[in-house]
Write the structure tokens for this entry.
Amino acid sequence: MRYAILGDIHSNLAAFEAVLRDIDLKGGIDRIWCLGDVVGYGPDPHECIELLRQYEHICVAGNHDWAAIGKMDTSDFNPVATRACRWTSQQLTKKDIDYLQNLPLSLCQDDFTLVHGSPREPIWEYLLSIEVAQDNFAYFKTAFCLVGHSHVPLIFEQRGNSTVYKEFPNRTNLELGGNRLIINPGGVGQPRDGDPRASYAIYDVDTRTIYHYRVEYDIPATQRKMEERGLPLPLILRLSEGW
Ligand code: ZN
């Protein structure tokens, strides 16, 4: 079995399609594991939900998925995110809303727990520091945890009583061993580690290896589309910067 691990698609259809094409080139997958924030920020919320639903997949809820359907208020969002969220809400069909409404906060598959933010706070918490990661190892029971939310590819490894941070660069093969891990595959639709290419991973069960990949997509075309839709300029500009 092979699973695609996709986080933070964020209504970026061109990035999502580029990732799916890349997956095909790499021999395909059996199922998508999606880490939430399917919508928010980008120009194609409805299309991204629809495309995801064409694949066999599981998906957890992200903060933007909840905000887009009013399941959570946007008082903690910055003004730009709030504007994009309001626009996103207006693009969703009844079917899209039902789909987002029913996304669970966390899921367990094989040796993995899937959440958007962190196992302790699945919607909100950012897992970016060793201290936060260390605490969070107590909040899931499986060997491994997959997270999104920060849009930064990284790995935290539990070694005895300490936690070690590791980068997760493009084309890294992460072989799963005995140590527990928290893994972020990076963001498909709005990467924030300085590399604007879409970021995702494939987990191969037979080799017990997670492969991390970056894929180019048509950023200028996506930016033009966002401009046409009247989405906020900072959200348009950040796609080419990768932050
Ligand atoms: Zn996100």
Observations:
- The chain has a mean pLDDT of 97.
